[in-house]
């Protein structure tokens, strides 16, 4: 199964992904980790910056996810995933690997809570610069066209993670 997490920075995607992967024995695949390593390696600078290769981190993640899915792992893909084109690409990965897809949008419906998280956030990855609240608000984020499970982290990430785990278990028991 490919669990495709989406959501604005600071809503709790990584915290949720870590919990879900621990409970279901899945692999947490985080775009921020990939992109941080790419910056650290010098490949982004050599390419002329992210403007020259804006989707490079996602493309690496798609390849890794496909390999992990073909090896039989549950993959929890953790990224902002703001555009229809990236959402379709994740679905193509699932289809190509013959995996069940589960689209999940992680939101924080309490705007002040979300803002507080963003403003208090520090990076846990070398070279990763976390966005400001203004950057989060100004970020392009297209509405969903496909069915999506929405989980709200306003009252904490544990309940949201439990909802995703329940959806994963339901998919495995309902699909042949």
From TrEMBL:
PANTHER family: OS07G0160300 PROTEIN. InterPro entries: P-loop_NTPase (IPR027417). This is AAA family ATPase. Pfam families: AAA_33 (PF13671). It comes from Mycolicibacterium komossense.
């Amino acid at each position: 199964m490919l669990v495709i997490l989406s959501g604005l920075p600071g809503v709790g995607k990584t915290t949720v992904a870590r919990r879900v992967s621990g409970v279901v024995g899945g692999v947490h695949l985080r775009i921020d980790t990939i992109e941080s390593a790419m910056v650290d390696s010098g490949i982004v600078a050599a390419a002329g910056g992210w403007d020259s290769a804006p989707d490079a981190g996602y493309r690496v993640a798609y390849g890794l996810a496909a390999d992990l899915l073909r090896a039989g792992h549950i993959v929890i893909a953790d990224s902002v995933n703001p555009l229809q084109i990236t959402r379709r690409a994740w679905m193509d990965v699932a289809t190509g690997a013959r995996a069940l897809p589960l689209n999940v949008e992680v939101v924080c419906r309490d705007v002040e809570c979300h803002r507080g998280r963003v403003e208090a956030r520090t990076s846990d990855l070398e070279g990763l610069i976390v966005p400001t609240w203004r950057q989060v608000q100004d970020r392009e984020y297209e509405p969903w066209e496909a069915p999506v499970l929405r989980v709200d982290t306003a009252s904490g990430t544990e309940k949201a993670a439990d909802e995703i785990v329940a959806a994963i278990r339901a998919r495995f028991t309902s699909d042949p």
